[in-house]
Amino acid sequence: MIKSLSPSKRASLGVLLFAVALVLAPWIVGHAGGNTWVRTLDFALLYIMLALGLNIVVGYAGLLDMGFIAFYAVGAYLAALLSSPHLLQQFPALVALLPAGMHTSIWLILPLGALLAAGCGVVLGAPTLRLRGDYLAIVTLGFGEIIRILLRNLDRPVNITNGPKGIAQVDPVNLLGVNLGRAQELFGLRLPSVCLYYYLFAALVVLILFACIRLERSRIGRAWVAIREDEEAAQAMGVNTVRLKLLAFAIGAAFGGVSGALFASFQGFVSPESFTLNESIAVLAMVVLGGMGHIPGVILGCVLLAALPEALRASMGPLQQALFGQVLLDPEIIRQLFYGLALILAMLYRPAGLWPKGVAR
């Protein structure tokens, strides 16, 4: 029946189903597994924002970026510095200027985080324009580690980032006077904090999705694909590869900065340990597993790789108890084993991703 519909009607139906699933997901998941699983959904949405940004760099422009988590860190630390008491404690002179404290609105932090991260993306992209493949991956990996080490050591001689201790007491999002860090009542219905954040993240994911779709269908998106397929041929046809590669780095980084700012407000705490190489690899795995350059595939990869580790962590202990009467192996070890095995099988049997571009579902 669905196959008999025209492409436009199938697309409209898909958008409708996606919207319904997005609205109902926290209630279904919360009823089945509690707020812990709704929190997992929140992180899945943050990963979707990150992965959509990385998809512009890797999926569209074909630039292998292994240090993308650095832009996430930039946005997170900017939000932490502008909405926590840390700077006031380190620089007492600021107290006279800000007697009410450092409580910057999230709606100012988000564009600032996007601009700062985009600037860092240009700084990363400018010296790497001639690099491709493995060489580009190594340079971007080094950039990500430099940012993490800088955040870890920027606590002396002037304490900016508080070093490995991180920055705590980051303000939660305050939306039109509603504190999303506390449960709220709406029409007699109690909405926990994780649900409030879920709908905020979902709204921003929709905005980023709209931007990505428009970019993909624009001349810029087509030029990125031309660069990915054959950079020399694209340049010969008049494509300004330098400008477009820098633009890919900047736009992708901006999405990462927005996601990082939201992460800081959601967690209330940031530290360098949240932005390790493993996180960069995880986000890249989401893009590759779902299907590079295909937005629905990227979303699928994010949801699977955000939920699978938590499902394995929750099930491995009880499963061993039921089979053997005791826990023989640490569930974390088994979780990593099955997680890695799932990725290997997916890459063996679906090398183009679980939902590659051009494959209908």
Keywords:
14 helices, about 5% strand, two-stranded antiparallel ribbon, mainly alpha, about 350 residues, 4 strands, single chain, about 70% helix
Description:
Helix 3 packs across helix 11 and helix 6 packs antiparallel against helix 11. This protein has 361 residues and is mainly α. Strands 1-2 form a two-stranded antiparallel ribbon. A two-stranded antiparallel sheet has the order 3-4. The radius of gyration is 21 Å and the shape is globular. It is built from 14 helices and four strands.
What order do the helices and strands follow?
HHHHHHHEEEEHHHHHHH
What does the overall shape look like? Answer: globular
**Main beta sheet, described?**
2 strands, antiparallel
The proportion of residues in beta strands is under 5%
N-end to C-end Cα span = 13 Å
**Number of helical segments with 4 or more residues:** 14
Number of strands: 4
Sheet/helix structural class? mainly alpha
The radius of gyration is: 21 Å
> How much helicity do the residues have?
55-70%
Mean pLDDT: 88
Reading side by side through the largest sheet, how are the strands ordered? 1-2
Low-pLDDT ranges = none
